[in-house]
């Protein structure tokens, strides 16, 4: 039995280190097994370089048919786990076929890498960036992965109109609500007001929700997942005609991402402000408005 277990031990240890690993910002990344690890943070068009060390176990030699490192940007649909969709794929050959008797270190570099999409872990899809080291062998290759995270920043939008909408139930309720803008960065504050122009039903409370809608797939294989990320109580008790209620909702406590539009024809992520009114008979009234989220600058990441 010990022989069988030993037969499946890796022939060598492979480690990946980034050249600026000690100075580069580290962020948390949740793995598939639920564990959270700290990995380096990059932006698009940065250089990604470092060293890969291969060390044979117990001083034994490692025969191989070549060693390479790949930089991959991948999209994985959770309902189709057998397939990865690579939107970025770069390769560097590190060694020709041969034998390794002792620890050997290989430098690598990928210059000004275009990484247009952000790292994303959602309900039905994930987008990840990874360095994949492959030691090719005729009887079972050795593969090691090193994840890293990509976040891309946006400038302030040149146009950012306010939102003005009405909620009405004929002869019963008429509400106007206004938000100061329609595009928000991830650490922004939603500021607005709710105006009651006609109130003939007994409203018990009113909440403002932030909802994220993730759409994956296409056609009959489309999956839509809606998640309420925040719920903010605006009012508790019955309003009267002419009353106005201020809105001030800070976004920084919540785990938001930028809005994603049809990433590689695989998925989209949208955000909505959802106004919910509940009357004394527990009937619920909704009014939903889409907003755009973006990532602003290094300090707001």
TrEMBL record:
Q: How does it sit in the membrane?
A: Peripheral membrane protein
Protein name as annotated: Vacuolar protein sorting-associated protein 26A
Q: Name one Pfam family in it.
A: Vps26
Keyword field: Cytoplasm, Golgi apparatus, Membrane, Protein transport, Transport
In the record, biological process GO terms are: protein transport
Keyword Transport listed: yes
Q: Which InterPro entries match?
A: Arrestin-like_C, Ig_E-set, Vps26-related
Annotated localization? Cytoplasm; Endosome membrane; Golgi apparatus, trans-Golgi network membrane; Prevacuolar compartment membrane
Function (record text): Plays a role in vesicular protein sorting. Component of the membrane-associated retromer complex which is essential in endosome-to-Golgi retrograde transport. The VPS29-VPS26-VPS35 subcomplex may be involved in recycling of specific cargos from endosome to the plasma membrane.
Q: What is its main location?
A: cytoplasm
- SUPFAM superfamilies cross-referenced by the UniProt entry: E set domains (SSF81296)
- Gene this chain is encoded by: VPS26A
Q: Organism source for this protein?
A: Castilleja foliolosa
Annotated family: Belongs to the VPS26 family.
| Subunit architecture | Component of the retromer complex which consists of VPS29 (MAG1), VPS26 (VPS26A or VPS26B), VPS35 (VPS35A or VPS35B or VPS35C), VPS5/17 (SNX1 or SNX2A or SNX2B). Component of a retromer subcomplex consisting of VPS29 (MAG1), VPS26 (VPS26A or VPS26B), VPS35 (VPS35A or VPS35B or VPS35C).
GO terms for CC?
A: endosome membrane; Golgi apparatus
């Amino acid at each position: 039995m010990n022989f069988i277990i030993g037969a499946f031990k890796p022939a060598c240890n492979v480690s990946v280190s980034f050249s600026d690993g000690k100075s580069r910002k580290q962020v948390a990344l949740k793995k598939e097994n639920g564990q959270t690890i700290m990995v380096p943070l990059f932006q698009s068009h940065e250089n990604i370089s470092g060293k890969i060390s291969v060390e044979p176990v117990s001083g034994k030699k490692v025969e191989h048919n070549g060693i390479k490192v790949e930089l991959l940007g991948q999209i994985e649909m959770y309902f189709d786990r057998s397939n990865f969709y690579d939107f970025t794929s770069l390769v560097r050959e590190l060694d020709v076929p041969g034998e390794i008797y002792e620890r050997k270190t290989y430098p690598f570099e990928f210059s000004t890498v275009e990484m247009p999409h952000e790292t994303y872990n959602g309900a039905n899809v994930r987008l990840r960036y990874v360095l994949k080291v492959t030691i090719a062998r005729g009887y079972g290759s050795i593969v090691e992965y090193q994840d890293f995270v990509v976040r891309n920043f946006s400038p302030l939008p040149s146009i950012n109109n306010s939102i003005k909408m009405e909620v009405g139930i004929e002869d019963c309720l008429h509400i106007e609500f206004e938000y100061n803008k329609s595009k928000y960065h991830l650490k922004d504050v939603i500021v607005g007001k709710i105006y009651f122009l006609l109130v003939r039903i007994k409203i018990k409370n009113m909440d403002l929700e932030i909802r994220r809608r993730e759409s994956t797939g296409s056609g009959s294989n489309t999956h839509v997942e809606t998640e309420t990320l925040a719920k903010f109580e605006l009012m508790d008790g019955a309003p009267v005609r002419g009353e106005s209620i201020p809105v001030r909702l800070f976004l920084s406590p919540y785990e938001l991402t930028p809005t994603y539009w049809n990433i590689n024809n695989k998925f989209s992520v949208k955000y909505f402000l959802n106004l919910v009114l509940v009357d004394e008979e527990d009937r619920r009234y909704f009014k939903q408005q889409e907003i755009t989220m973006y990532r602003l600058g290094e300090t707001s990441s």
